[in-house]
Amino acid sequence: MKKLFLTFACLVLLSVAVAAAQAKTPPQAAVVSAHPLATAAGQRILSEGGNAFDAAVAVAAILGVVEPFSSGIGGGGFWLVYDAQKDAYLMLDARETAPAAARAEIYLDENGNPDPDLLRNGPLAAGIPGSPAALQDIAKTYGTMPLSALLAPAIAAAREGFAVDARYVNGARHKQDILRRYPASAAIFLDHGNVPEDGWILKQPDLAATLEMIAEKGAEAFYQGDFAEKMLRDAQKHGGNWTAEDLQNYKTVMRTPVTGEYRGAKIISAAPPSSGGIVLVNALNILSGFDLAAKDSATRVHLIVEAMRRAYRMRAQNLGDPDFADIPQARLLSAEFAAEQRSTILPDRATPSDIPDLHLPHESEETTHFAVIDRAGNRVAVTRTVNLWFGSGFVPEGTGVLLNNEMDDFSVKPGVENAFGLIGFDANAVEGGKRMLSSMSPTFVESDRGALIIGTPGGSRIISMVLLGILDFLDGHEAEEIAARPRFHHQYLPDEIVYERAAFTEEDENTLRQMGHTLSPAGRYGNMQIILWDYATGRVEAVSDPRGSGAGEVY
Predict the structure, then answer these.
(1) What is the pTM of this model?
(2) β-strand pairing of 529-534 with 450-455
(3) What are the per-10-residue average pLDDT scores of the chain (555 residues)?
(4) Domain count of the fold of the chain
(5) Residue 242 falls within a domain, yes or no?
(6) 300 lies in a domain?
(7) Which range marks the domain in which residue 105 is found?
(8) Do residues 429 and 114 make contact, with C-beta atoms less than 8 angstroms apart?
(9) 3-class secondary-structure state, position 240
(10) Which residues are catalytic?
(11) Which of these, 13, 207, 260, 430, is most buried using a 10 Å CB contact count?
(12) What does the DSSP 8-state code read for residue 317?
Protein backbone atom coordinates (compact mmCIF):
# COMPACT_ATOMS: atom_id res chain seq x y z
CA MET A 1 0.00 0.00 0.00
CA LYS A 2 2.87 2.35 0.88
CA LYS A 3 4.55 1.58 -2.45
CA LEU A 4 1.27 2.31 -4.27
CA PHE A 5 0.94 5.62 -2.44
CA LEU A 6 4.50 6.63 -3.37
CA THR A 7 3.88 5.73 -6.99
CA PHE A 8 0.70 7.79 -6.98
CA ALA A 9 2.53 10.69 -5.34
CA CYS A 10 5.27 10.52 -7.95
CA LEU A 11 2.68 10.56 -10.71
CA VAL A 12 1.04 13.62 -9.16
CA LEU A 13 4.39 15.43 -8.93
CA LEU A 14 5.19 14.44 -12.50
CA SER A 15 1.84 15.71 -13.75
CA VAL A 16 2.38 19.00 -11.90
CA ALA A 17 5.82 19.35 -13.49
CA VAL A 18 4.44 18.60 -16.94
CA ALA A 19 1.60 21.11 -16.43
CA ALA A 20 4.10 23.77 -15.34
CA ALA A 21 6.25 23.09 -18.39
CA GLN A 22 3.24 23.30 -20.68
CA ALA A 23 2.11 26.54 -19.05
CA LYS A 24 5.56 27.97 -19.79
CA THR A 25 5.52 30.69 -17.17
CA PRO A 26 8.97 32.14 -16.61
CA PRO A 27 10.53 32.20 -13.14
CA GLN A 28 11.60 35.81 -13.66
CA ALA A 29 10.46 38.98 -15.38
CA ALA A 30 12.77 40.99 -17.60
CA VAL A 31 13.07 44.31 -19.42
CA VAL A 32 15.62 45.33 -22.03
CA SER A 33 15.85 48.63 -23.89
CA ALA A 34 18.28 50.97 -25.58
CA HIS A 35 18.56 53.29 -22.56
CA PRO A 36 19.16 52.53 -18.85
CA LEU A 37 16.55 55.08 -17.73
CA ALA A 38 13.90 53.35 -19.83
CA THR A 39 14.83 49.92 -18.48
CA ALA A 40 14.67 51.32 -14.95
CA ALA A 41 11.20 52.74 -15.64
CA GLY A 42 10.02 49.31 -16.76
CA GLN A 43 11.52 47.74 -13.66
CA ARG A 44 9.71 50.28 -11.48
CA ILE A 45 6.33 49.46 -13.01
CA LEU A 46 6.88 45.71 -12.63
CA SER A 47 7.95 46.17 -9.01
CA GLU A 48 4.75 48.13 -8.36
CA GLY A 49 2.66 45.21 -9.56
CA GLY A 50 2.20 46.14 -13.20
CA ASN A 51 2.27 43.56 -15.96
CA ALA A 52 4.46 43.42 -19.08
CA PHE A 53 2.08 45.68 -20.99
CA ASP A 54 2.11 48.33 -18.27
CA ALA A 55 5.90 48.23 -18.23
CA ALA A 56 6.04 48.46 -22.02
CA VAL A 57 3.97 51.64 -22.05
CA ALA A 58 6.26 53.20 -19.45
CA VAL A 59 9.39 52.15 -21.37
CA ALA A 60 8.02 53.45 -24.67
CA ALA A 61 7.07 56.80 -23.19
CA ILE A 62 10.41 57.48 -21.56
CA LEU A 63 12.38 56.31 -24.60
CA GLY A 64 10.58 59.07 -26.49
CA VAL A 65 12.06 61.51 -23.99
CA VAL A 66 15.62 60.20 -23.66
CA GLU A 67 15.95 59.17 -27.32
CA PRO A 68 14.17 62.06 -29.08
CA PHE A 69 16.30 61.40 -32.13
CA SER A 70 14.69 57.99 -32.67
CA SER A 71 11.36 57.26 -31.02
CA GLY A 72 9.36 60.21 -29.71
CA ILE A 73 5.58 60.56 -29.61
CA GLY A 74 5.76 62.33 -32.95
CA GLY A 75 6.44 58.97 -34.61
CA GLY A 76 4.98 55.49 -34.71
CA GLY A 77 5.79 51.80 -34.54
CA PHE A 78 4.65 48.21 -34.12
CA TRP A 79 3.76 46.47 -30.84
CA LEU A 80 3.97 42.67 -31.01
CA VAL A 81 2.22 41.19 -27.97
CA TYR A 82 1.57 37.78 -26.47
CA ASP A 83 -1.38 37.67 -24.07
CA ALA A 84 -0.61 34.66 -21.86
CA GLN A 85 -4.08 34.46 -20.35
CA LYS A 86 -5.70 34.15 -23.79
CA ASP A 87 -2.73 32.40 -25.40
CA ALA A 88 -3.04 34.94 -28.21
CA TYR A 89 -0.53 36.74 -30.42
CA LEU A 90 -1.47 40.15 -31.81
CA MET A 91 0.21 43.16 -33.36
CA LEU A 92 -0.85 46.72 -32.67
CA ASP A 93 -0.12 48.71 -35.81
CA ALA A 94 0.72 52.28 -34.76
CA ARG A 95 2.42 53.17 -38.03
CA GLU A 96 2.00 56.75 -39.19
CA THR A 97 -0.47 57.58 -41.96
CA ALA A 98 -0.10 59.95 -44.88
CA PRO A 99 -2.19 63.13 -44.64
CA ALA A 100 -5.16 63.22 -47.02
CA ALA A 101 -3.48 65.85 -49.20
CA ALA A 102 -0.38 63.72 -49.81
CA ARG A 103 0.45 63.13 -53.47
CA ALA A 104 3.66 61.84 -55.03
CA GLU A 105 4.05 64.97 -57.20
CA ILE A 106 4.34 67.15 -54.08
CA TYR A 107 7.73 65.54 -53.39
CA LEU A 108 9.19 65.74 -56.91
CA ASP A 109 11.60 68.39 -58.16
CA GLU A 110 11.35 70.26 -61.46
CA ASN A 111 12.89 67.27 -63.26
CA GLY A 112 10.32 64.83 -61.88
CA ASN A 113 12.72 63.21 -59.41
CA PRO A 114 12.18 62.80 -55.64
CA ASP A 115 13.33 65.85 -53.68
CA PRO A 116 15.18 64.55 -50.59
CA ASP A 117 14.72 67.81 -48.68
CA LEU A 118 10.92 67.78 -49.03
CA LEU A 119 10.75 64.07 -48.17
CA ARG A 120 13.01 64.22 -45.12
CA ASN A 121 12.98 67.71 -43.60
CA GLY A 122 10.22 69.88 -42.21
CA PRO A 123 6.52 69.21 -41.57
CA LEU A 124 5.73 68.19 -45.17
CA ALA A 125 7.86 65.09 -44.53
CA ALA A 126 5.76 64.01 -41.55
CA GLY A 127 3.03 61.40 -41.39
CA ILE A 128 0.28 61.52 -38.76
CA PRO A 129 1.86 60.14 -35.54
CA GLY A 130 0.65 56.83 -34.11
CA SER A 131 2.61 56.68 -30.85
CA PRO A 132 0.23 58.67 -28.59
CA ALA A 133 -2.69 56.43 -29.59
CA ALA A 134 -0.58 53.30 -29.08
CA LEU A 135 0.35 54.23 -25.51
CA GLN A 136 -3.30 54.60 -24.60
CA ASP A 137 -4.57 51.60 -26.56
CA ILE A 138 -2.05 49.17 -25.06
CA ALA A 139 -2.71 50.48 -21.53
CA LYS A 140 -6.49 50.20 -21.94
CA THR A 141 -6.52 46.83 -23.70
CA TYR A 142 -3.87 44.93 -21.77
CA GLY A 143 -2.64 47.02 -18.86
CA THR A 144 -3.66 47.06 -15.21
CA MET A 145 -2.47 50.53 -14.16
CA PRO A 146 -3.74 54.02 -15.08
CA LEU A 147 -2.02 55.81 -17.95
CA SER A 148 -1.06 58.62 -15.57
CA ALA A 149 1.09 56.23 -13.52
CA LEU A 150 2.69 54.72 -16.63
CA LEU A 151 3.68 58.09 -18.09
CA ALA A 152 4.97 59.51 -14.81
CA PRO A 153 8.63 58.45 -15.33
CA ALA A 154 8.65 60.01 -18.81
CA ILE A 155 7.08 63.24 -17.54
CA ALA A 156 9.67 63.50 -14.79
CA ALA A 157 12.57 62.86 -17.19
CA ALA A 158 11.29 65.49 -19.61
CA ARG A 159 10.77 68.11 -16.92
CA GLU A 160 13.83 67.45 -14.75
CA GLY A 161 16.17 66.63 -17.61
CA PHE A 162 18.83 63.99 -18.16
CA ALA A 163 22.42 63.86 -19.37
CA VAL A 164 22.69 63.19 -23.11
CA ASP A 165 25.13 60.57 -24.34
CA ALA A 166 27.36 60.10 -27.37
CA ARG A 167 24.50 58.78 -29.52
CA TYR A 168 22.52 61.96 -28.91
CA VAL A 169 25.54 64.11 -29.71
CA ASN A 170 26.21 62.20 -32.95
CA GLY A 171 22.58 62.58 -33.99
CA ALA A 172 22.51 66.29 -33.21
CA ARG A 173 25.72 66.80 -35.16
CA HIS A 174 24.22 64.96 -38.14
CA LYS A 175 21.00 67.01 -38.05
CA GLN A 176 22.26 70.37 -36.74
CA ASP A 177 21.61 72.37 -39.92
CA ILE A 178 17.98 71.24 -40.11
CA LEU A 179 17.41 71.79 -36.39
CA ARG A 180 18.71 75.35 -36.80
CA ARG A 181 16.24 75.86 -39.64
CA TYR A 182 13.40 75.70 -37.08
CA PRO A 183 13.93 77.90 -33.99
CA ALA A 184 11.61 75.83 -31.77
CA SER A 185 13.68 72.70 -32.54
CA ALA A 186 17.04 74.38 -32.05
CA ALA A 187 15.92 75.85 -28.72
CA ILE A 188 15.24 72.37 -27.39
CA PHE A 189 17.88 70.09 -28.90
CA LEU A 190 20.90 72.36 -29.37
CA ASP A 191 22.94 74.19 -26.75
CA HIS A 192 22.55 77.87 -27.69
CA GLY A 193 22.53 76.87 -31.34
CA ASN A 194 25.50 74.54 -31.05
CA VAL A 195 25.82 70.76 -30.90
CA PRO A 196 25.87 69.91 -27.19
CA GLU A 197 28.65 68.03 -25.49
CA ASP A 198 28.33 64.59 -23.99
CA GLY A 199 26.72 65.02 -20.54
CA TRP A 200 24.74 68.16 -21.41
CA ILE A 201 21.43 68.23 -19.54
CA LEU A 202 18.44 68.16 -21.89
CA LYS A 203 15.21 69.51 -20.40
CA GLN A 204 11.96 69.42 -22.37
CA PRO A 205 9.26 71.29 -20.40
CA ASP A 206 6.87 71.56 -23.37
CA LEU A 207 7.08 67.81 -23.95
CA ALA A 208 6.51 67.22 -20.22
CA ALA A 209 3.34 69.31 -20.45
CA THR A 210 2.19 67.40 -23.54
CA LEU A 211 2.74 64.03 -21.86
CA GLU A 212 0.96 65.32 -18.77
CA MET A 213 -2.00 66.32 -20.94
CA ILE A 214 -2.15 62.82 -22.47
CA ALA A 215 -1.87 61.24 -19.01
CA GLU A 216 -4.79 63.30 -17.69
CA LYS A 217 -7.07 63.60 -20.73
CA GLY A 218 -6.07 60.65 -22.90
CA ALA A 219 -4.61 60.48 -26.39
CA GLU A 220 -7.72 62.19 -27.77
CA ALA A 221 -6.31 65.46 -26.45
CA PHE A 222 -3.34 65.04 -28.79
CA TYR A 223 -5.45 64.43 -31.89
CA GLN A 224 -8.19 67.04 -31.41
CA GLY A 225 -8.95 70.25 -29.58
CA ASP A 226 -6.66 73.13 -28.63
CA PHE A 227 -3.43 71.13 -28.70
CA ALA A 228 -4.12 69.71 -32.17
CA GLU A 229 -4.93 73.21 -33.44
CA LYS A 230 -1.62 74.46 -32.04
CA MET A 231 0.28 71.74 -33.90
CA LEU A 232 -1.61 72.38 -37.12
CA ARG A 233 -1.08 76.15 -37.09
CA ASP A 234 2.68 75.92 -36.79
CA ALA A 235 3.04 72.94 -39.13
CA GLN A 236 1.02 74.70 -41.84
CA LYS A 237 2.96 77.92 -41.26
CA HIS A 238 6.14 76.01 -42.17
CA GLY A 239 4.75 74.29 -45.25
CA GLY A 240 3.00 71.24 -43.79
CA ASN A 241 -0.25 69.84 -45.17
CA TRP A 242 -1.89 68.22 -42.15
CA THR A 243 -5.55 69.00 -41.42
CA ALA A 244 -7.73 68.64 -38.34
CA GLU A 245 -9.47 65.71 -40.06
CA ASP A 246 -6.13 63.92 -40.56
CA LEU A 247 -5.47 64.03 -36.83
CA GLN A 248 -9.03 63.17 -35.78
CA ASN A 249 -9.17 60.21 -38.16
CA TYR A 250 -6.00 58.53 -36.90
CA LYS A 251 -6.58 55.08 -35.37
CA THR A 252 -4.27 52.23 -34.49
CA VAL A 253 -5.12 48.87 -36.08
CA MET A 254 -4.96 45.47 -34.38
CA ARG A 255 -3.53 42.97 -36.87
CA THR A 256 -2.74 39.27 -36.95
CA PRO A 257 1.03 38.74 -36.86
CA VAL A 258 2.86 36.84 -39.57
CA THR A 259 3.74 33.30 -38.48
CA GLY A 260 5.94 30.58 -39.91
CA GLU A 261 8.09 27.60 -38.97
CA TYR A 262 11.76 26.89 -39.38
CA ARG A 263 13.62 23.84 -38.03
CA GLY A 264 10.68 23.06 -35.76
CA ALA A 265 10.58 26.57 -34.29
CA LYS A 266 7.58 28.89 -34.51
CA ILE A 267 8.30 32.38 -35.83
CA ILE A 268 5.88 35.20 -34.93
CA SER A 269 6.67 38.59 -36.41
CA ALA A 270 5.28 41.90 -37.62
CA ALA A 271 2.58 41.98 -40.29
CA PRO A 272 2.15 44.51 -43.11
CA PRO A 273 2.55 47.43 -43.32
CA SER A 274 5.74 46.06 -41.81
CA SER A 275 7.65 44.01 -44.33
CA GLY A 276 9.56 42.32 -41.53
CA GLY A 277 7.49 39.22 -40.88
CA ILE A 278 6.88 38.25 -44.51
CA VAL A 279 10.51 38.85 -45.54
CA LEU A 280 11.81 36.92 -42.51
CA VAL A 281 9.55 33.91 -43.01
CA ASN A 282 10.16 33.89 -46.76
CA ALA A 283 13.95 33.93 -46.25
CA LEU A 284 13.71 31.13 -43.66
CA ASN A 285 11.48 29.12 -45.98
CA ILE A 286 14.15 29.42 -48.67
CA LEU A 287 16.87 28.37 -46.22
CA SER A 288 14.83 25.37 -45.03
CA GLY A 289 15.97 23.54 -48.16
CA PHE A 290 19.62 23.69 -47.11
CA ASP A 291 21.53 22.02 -44.28
CA LEU A 292 23.43 25.12 -43.20
CA ALA A 293 25.21 23.26 -40.39
CA ALA A 294 26.87 20.95 -42.93
CA LYS A 295 28.26 23.82 -45.00
CA ASP A 296 31.60 25.55 -44.69
CA SER A 297 31.40 29.12 -43.39
CA ALA A 298 31.70 30.86 -46.77
CA THR A 299 29.04 28.67 -48.40
CA ARG A 300 26.75 29.23 -45.42
CA VAL A 301 27.07 33.01 -45.84
CA HIS A 302 26.54 32.64 -49.60
CA LEU A 303 23.27 30.74 -49.14
CA ILE A 304 21.97 33.17 -46.50
CA VAL A 305 22.83 36.12 -48.76
CA GLU A 306 21.03 34.52 -51.71
CA ALA A 307 17.95 33.99 -49.51
CA MET A 308 18.14 37.64 -48.43
CA ARG A 309 18.48 38.76 -52.05
CA ARG A 310 15.31 36.97 -53.09
CA ALA A 311 13.27 37.91 -50.02
CA TYR A 312 14.13 41.62 -50.37
CA ARG A 313 13.28 41.46 -54.09
CA MET A 314 9.87 40.06 -53.14
CA ARG A 315 9.51 42.95 -50.66
CA ALA A 316 10.10 45.60 -53.30
CA GLN A 317 7.63 44.08 -55.74
CA ASN A 318 4.74 43.10 -53.48
CA LEU A 319 4.52 44.78 -50.07
CA GLY A 320 2.71 47.87 -48.81
CA ASP A 321 -0.24 48.88 -46.62
CA PRO A 322 -2.66 45.90 -46.64
CA ASP A 323 -5.63 48.29 -46.38
CA PHE A 324 -4.69 49.76 -49.77
CA ALA A 325 -2.66 47.09 -51.61
CA ASP A 326 -3.68 43.53 -52.50
CA ILE A 327 -0.82 41.56 -50.96
CA PRO A 328 -0.69 37.85 -51.97
CA GLN A 329 0.43 36.94 -48.45
CA ALA A 330 -0.50 33.24 -48.54
CA ARG A 331 1.59 32.67 -51.64
CA LEU A 332 4.53 34.75 -50.41
CA LEU A 333 4.65 32.68 -47.21
CA SER A 334 4.15 29.33 -48.94
CA ALA A 335 6.71 26.53 -49.21
CA GLU A 336 5.96 26.32 -52.94
CA PHE A 337 6.96 29.95 -53.55
CA ALA A 338 10.16 29.48 -51.50
CA ALA A 339 10.99 26.36 -53.52
CA GLU A 340 10.68 28.36 -56.73
CA GLN A 341 13.03 31.00 -55.34
CA ARG A 342 15.44 28.35 -54.02
CA SER A 343 15.64 26.62 -57.39
CA THR A 344 17.38 29.68 -58.84
CA ILE A 345 20.20 29.65 -56.26
CA LEU A 346 23.55 28.34 -57.48
CA PRO A 347 25.54 26.47 -54.80
CA ASP A 348 28.84 28.20 -55.56
CA ARG A 349 28.00 31.30 -57.54
CA ALA A 350 26.25 34.61 -56.80
CA THR A 351 23.17 35.34 -58.90
CA PRO A 352 23.31 39.05 -59.79
CA SER A 353 20.30 41.25 -59.10
CA ASP A 354 18.75 42.00 -62.45
CA ILE A 355 18.49 45.81 -62.59
CA PRO A 356 21.25 48.45 -62.20
CA ASP A 357 22.88 49.06 -58.84
CA LEU A 358 21.66 51.82 -56.55
CA HIS A 359 23.62 53.79 -54.01
CA LEU A 360 23.20 52.71 -50.38
CA PRO A 361 23.35 55.82 -48.15
CA HIS A 362 24.87 55.90 -44.69
CA GLU A 363 22.55 54.30 -42.20
CA SER A 364 22.39 55.22 -38.53
CA GLU A 365 20.52 54.23 -35.38
CA GLU A 366 17.36 56.31 -35.70
CA THR A 367 14.92 53.63 -34.51
CA THR A 368 14.61 51.90 -31.14
CA HIS A 369 13.54 48.47 -29.93
CA PHE A 370 12.68 47.11 -26.49
CA ALA A 371 11.17 43.99 -24.97
CA VAL A 372 9.41 42.96 -21.75
CA ILE A 373 8.35 39.63 -20.26
CA ASP A 374 6.54 39.20 -16.94
CA ARG A 375 6.09 36.29 -14.53
CA ALA A 376 2.73 35.39 -16.07
CA GLY A 377 4.41 34.85 -19.43
CA ASN A 378 3.04 37.98 -21.12
CA ARG A 379 5.49 39.27 -23.72
CA VAL A 380 5.89 42.51 -25.61
CA ALA A 381 8.31 43.35 -28.42
CA VAL A 382 8.16 46.92 -29.68
CA THR A 383 10.01 48.72 -32.47
CA ARG A 384 9.33 52.47 -32.73
CA THR A 385 10.79 55.25 -34.83
CA VAL A 386 10.64 58.81 -36.14
CA ASN A 387 12.61 57.51 -39.17
CA LEU A 388 15.91 59.36 -39.70
CA TRP A 389 17.99 61.15 -37.04
CA PHE A 390 15.64 63.60 -35.25
CA GLY A 391 12.93 62.80 -37.80
CA SER A 392 11.87 65.86 -39.80
CA GLY A 393 13.79 68.17 -37.46
CA PHE A 394 10.59 70.12 -36.91
CA VAL A 395 8.84 70.76 -33.58
CA PRO A 396 5.52 72.67 -33.65
CA GLU A 397 6.13 75.59 -31.31
CA GLY A 398 4.97 75.07 -27.72
CA THR A 399 4.38 71.31 -28.07
CA GLY A 400 7.78 69.68 -27.56
CA VAL A 401 6.72 67.06 -30.15
CA LEU A 402 9.42 66.29 -32.72
CA LEU A 403 7.67 65.17 -35.91
CA ASN A 404 8.73 62.14 -37.93
CA ASN A 405 9.84 62.14 -41.58
CA GLU A 406 8.17 58.87 -42.55
CA MET A 407 6.90 60.13 -45.92
CA ASP A 408 10.33 59.11 -47.22
CA ASP A 409 9.35 55.48 -46.64
CA PHE A 410 6.80 55.65 -49.45
CA SER A 411 7.75 54.86 -53.03
CA VAL A 412 7.46 58.38 -54.43
CA LYS A 413 8.71 57.24 -57.83
CA PRO A 414 8.64 53.55 -58.86
CA GLY A 415 12.07 51.93 -58.74
CA VAL A 416 13.80 54.90 -57.08
CA GLU A 417 15.52 54.31 -53.75
CA ASN A 418 14.63 55.97 -50.45
CA ALA A 419 17.06 57.05 -47.70
CA PHE A 420 17.86 53.40 -46.93
CA GLY A 421 18.50 52.40 -50.53
CA LEU A 422 15.23 50.47 -50.68
CA ILE A 423 13.10 50.59 -53.79
CA GLY A 424 9.36 50.15 -54.11
CA PHE A 425 6.54 50.14 -56.60
CA ASP A 426 2.76 50.66 -56.71
CA ALA A 427 1.99 48.68 -53.53
CA ASN A 428 3.86 51.34 -51.52
CA ALA A 429 2.96 54.42 -53.57
CA VAL A 430 1.98 57.66 -51.80
CA GLU A 431 -1.73 57.98 -51.04
CA GLY A 432 -3.70 59.94 -48.45
CA GLY A 433 -4.54 57.92 -45.33
CA LYS A 434 -2.13 55.16 -46.28
CA ARG A 435 0.53 53.65 -44.00
CA MET A 436 4.03 53.58 -45.42
CA LEU A 437 5.91 50.28 -45.69
CA SER A 438 8.38 49.61 -42.87
CA SER A 439 11.26 47.26 -42.07
CA MET A 440 10.61 47.25 -38.30
CA SER A 441 10.55 43.62 -37.20
CA PRO A 442 9.67 42.92 -33.55
CA THR A 443 9.77 39.13 -33.40
CA PHE A 444 9.06 36.16 -31.11
CA VAL A 445 10.64 32.74 -31.66
CA GLU A 446 9.46 29.63 -29.80
CA SER A 447 11.33 26.34 -30.00
CA ASP A 448 12.00 23.29 -27.85
CA ARG A 449 14.94 25.25 -26.45
CA GLY A 450 12.88 28.21 -25.24
CA ALA A 451 11.50 31.60 -26.22
CA LEU A 452 13.34 34.47 -27.88
CA ILE A 453 12.15 38.09 -28.08
CA ILE A 454 14.27 40.01 -30.55
CA GLY A 455 14.39 43.26 -32.52
CA THR A 456 16.68 46.11 -33.49
CA PRO A 457 16.90 49.47 -35.24
CA GLY A 458 18.78 49.76 -38.50
CA GLY A 459 16.48 50.70 -41.38
CA SER A 460 16.67 48.18 -44.21
CA ARG A 461 19.17 46.10 -42.22
CA ILE A 462 16.68 45.38 -39.44
CA ILE A 463 15.29 42.28 -41.14
CA SER A 464 18.67 40.75 -41.92
CA MET A 465 19.88 41.34 -38.35
CA VAL A 466 16.82 39.62 -36.91
CA LEU A 467 17.23 36.78 -39.42
CA LEU A 468 20.84 36.20 -38.31
CA GLY A 469 19.75 36.40 -34.66
CA ILE A 470 17.11 33.71 -35.20
CA LEU A 471 19.63 31.42 -36.88
CA ASP A 472 22.07 31.92 -34.01
CA PHE A 473 19.36 31.22 -31.42
CA LEU A 474 18.40 27.97 -33.14
CA ASP A 475 22.08 27.02 -33.32
CA GLY A 476 22.25 27.24 -29.52
CA HIS A 477 24.04 30.55 -28.99
CA GLU A 478 23.40 32.53 -25.81
CA ALA A 479 21.79 35.97 -25.85
CA GLU A 480 25.08 37.83 -25.37
CA GLU A 481 26.62 36.04 -28.34
CA ILE A 482 23.60 36.74 -30.53
CA ALA A 483 23.63 40.46 -29.72
CA ALA A 484 27.39 40.87 -30.16
CA ARG A 485 28.00 38.70 -33.24
CA PRO A 486 29.28 40.64 -36.30
CA ARG A 487 26.63 41.07 -39.01
CA PHE A 488 26.22 41.01 -42.77
CA HIS A 489 23.42 42.15 -45.04
CA HIS A 490 22.09 41.99 -48.59
CA GLN A 491 18.90 43.73 -49.72
CA TYR A 492 18.69 42.85 -53.44
CA LEU A 493 19.72 46.36 -54.48
CA PRO A 494 22.39 47.58 -54.29
CA ASP A 495 23.89 44.22 -55.29
CA GLU A 496 26.48 43.99 -52.53
CA ILE A 497 27.10 42.34 -49.17
CA VAL A 498 27.41 45.03 -46.51
CA TYR A 499 29.25 43.62 -43.50
CA GLU A 500 30.91 44.48 -40.22
CA ARG A 501 34.64 43.95 -40.65
CA ALA A 502 34.81 41.14 -38.07
CA ALA A 503 32.02 39.17 -39.74
CA PHE A 504 34.26 37.25 -42.17
CA THR A 505 37.72 35.77 -42.13
CA GLU A 506 40.09 36.85 -44.87
CA GLU A 507 39.72 33.40 -46.43
CA ASP A 508 35.92 33.70 -46.46
CA GLU A 509 36.12 37.18 -48.00
CA ASN A 510 38.27 35.82 -50.82
CA THR A 511 35.94 32.84 -51.36
CA LEU A 512 32.85 35.05 -51.48
CA ARG A 513 34.51 37.34 -54.02
CA GLN A 514 35.45 34.33 -56.12
CA MET A 515 31.78 33.32 -56.05
CA GLY A 516 30.97 36.66 -57.63
CA HIS A 517 29.81 38.63 -54.58
CA THR A 518 30.69 42.30 -54.12
CA LEU A 519 31.72 43.04 -50.54
CA SER A 520 31.25 46.45 -48.92
CA PRO A 521 32.67 46.80 -45.39
CA ALA A 522 30.74 49.00 -42.96
CA GLY A 523 31.13 50.27 -39.45
CA ARG A 524 29.39 48.60 -36.53
CA TYR A 525 25.64 48.83 -36.93
CA GLY A 526 22.44 47.87 -35.13
CA ASN A 527 21.35 48.10 -31.50
CA MET A 528 19.69 44.76 -30.83
CA GLN A 529 17.65 44.12 -27.68
CA ILE A 530 17.06 40.49 -26.67
CA ILE A 531 15.20 38.50 -24.02
CA LEU A 532 15.95 34.77 -24.06
CA TRP A 533 14.08 32.35 -21.80
CA ASP A 534 15.61 28.86 -21.65
CA TYR A 535 12.91 26.29 -20.82
CA ALA A 536 15.31 23.62 -19.56
CA THR A 537 17.23 25.77 -17.08
CA GLY A 538 14.47 28.28 -16.40
CA ARG A 539 17.05 31.01 -16.93
CA VAL A 540 15.90 34.34 -18.39
CA GLU A 541 18.49 36.61 -20.05
CA ALA A 542 17.95 40.25 -20.99
CA VAL A 543 20.78 41.53 -23.16
CA SER A 544 21.34 44.90 -24.80
CA ASP A 545 23.60 45.17 -27.82
CA PRO A 546 27.19 46.10 -26.83
CA ARG A 547 27.20 48.50 -29.81
CA GLY A 548 24.76 50.73 -27.91
CA SER A 549 24.40 52.03 -24.37
CA GLY A 550 21.21 50.21 -23.35
CA ALA A 551 20.51 47.95 -20.42
CA GLY A 552 18.75 44.70 -19.69
CA GLU A 553 17.51 43.66 -16.25
CA VAL A 554 16.04 40.40 -14.95
CA TYR A 555 13.90 40.55 -11.83
Answers:
(1) 0.92
(2) antiparallel
(3) 39 36 78 97 97 98 96 95 97 97 89 88 96 98 97 98 94 94 96 95 98 97 97 95 97 97 98 95 97 97 97 89 90 95 95 58 67 97 94 96 92 58 65 91 97 94 97 97 97 94 96 97 94 95 95 92
(4) 1
(5) no
(6) yes
(7) 73-113+250-555
(8) no
(9) coil
(10) 367
(11) 207
(12) H
